[in-house]
Amino acid sequence: MSYMMLYSRLLNSLIRNNKNGYWLLKSGILIGKNYVKYFPDKRLPRSFQYLHKIVFDWTYKGIASKSSVWVNLFAPSEILLAFGFNPIFVEAISAFLSGLDVEDELILRAESQGISESFCTFHKAFLGAAISNLLKKPKFLVATSSICDANLNTFRFLSETLKLPFFFLDVPSEDSKEARQYLKAQLSSMIKSIEKLTGRKLNLDYLAKIIKKENATRKLIKESLKLRATKNIKTTLTFEMFMLYPSHVFCGTDQALRFYQMFVDDLKNSEERDGKSIFFIHTLPIFEENFKEYFNFSNKINVLGMDLNFDFLEEINEQDPIEAICEKLLKNPYNGDFKRRFEHIKTLIEVLKPDGVLQICQMGCKQSIGCSMLLKSNVETLGIPFTSIDVDCVNKKNNSKGQIRTRLEAFLERVK
What we know:
Layout: H1 3-16, H2 22-38, H3 46-64, E1 68-71, H4 77-83, E2 86-89, H5 90-99, H6 103-112, H7 121-130, E3 141-144, H8 150-162, E4 166-169, H9 177-198, H10 204-227, E5 231-232, H11 237-242, H12 244-249, H13 254-268, E6 271-272, E7 276-281, H14 289-295, E8 301-306, H15 321-331, H16 338-352, E9 356-362, H17 366-370, H18 372-380, E10 386-391, H19 401-414
Parallel strand pairs: 1-2, 1-3, 3-4, 7-8, 7-9, 9-10
Antiparallel strand pairs: 5-6
């Protein structure tokens, strides 16, 4: 039996018997953090080796720090970073826990508290961890209404069950003067409440510096997008998923800026693109065996990334950081109707020129399942093969390996 299997069994046993597993989870991530620091995967380019390190650093702080805050992917984490908090997002923790093979016990625990079987397993695993003595309580919770309708239910449940302060930002679907005033009032109210709750004061000058670094990072993201149209870099689906950390919650940090500087350099020095190239929509099934076999370190198929890592690419005004955050939230192409989202995806496709587009419909995600036929009809008008495949990216037992393989191979045969 491997050390990882033994660790997973012990962690599952603690969860099953309602024992405190926090210390074991924290120790495991600390070991992982040091392992990737001192023993980097030599198959990876330098930028991904660095990304591996900072993702473990951020995850460890989000779990172990006394200043942790639980957020959703689109929360205005710039404000939290300026306060000196350590944000961590739902999908990150759930993916780590699935990698440790403890998702079954956590999902069962969540369902025992009345959480629906059809609820998104990213959220359900996180809920199970939160109520199973596996995670230490954060200072408070922050979520937005953007994209995912599970956010409000998840964070409200956590707030009520764990008695935690919860700040929810209702982001209007259209950008207007009135919408900005409405959202700005919510942000101002949240900031005042956090100051009163924690005794910390928000330094707007420091927040402006974070926005400035965020703009510099986003400029590099745009450059990497153009480079991926002609260059091929050795990657795995896991590292494409890891990029959600620097492209979202930690965008504006020194580490995120450094990663994208390294990533652009690696792309410039990589080989010219050759073979089939696939662009992913929505999420990535990093634990599904067929996808790992076909896409990780592949010499035949180029992974061009995932749309969520290129969602908002505009520069925002660092001189007025609160207004800038309002603009980013309101102008995000995934905030609003499908037409707005597809126009953005179409632009990404025109830049990247993929040979095929693959949408991953996460189990329980209404927005990805609901728009799959619209995406199919719209992408295929561009003359590009498209398919959607239902995969549970967290609960591995929900996946039929044979059916997924049939769908995936049929799609790849269509890709020229």
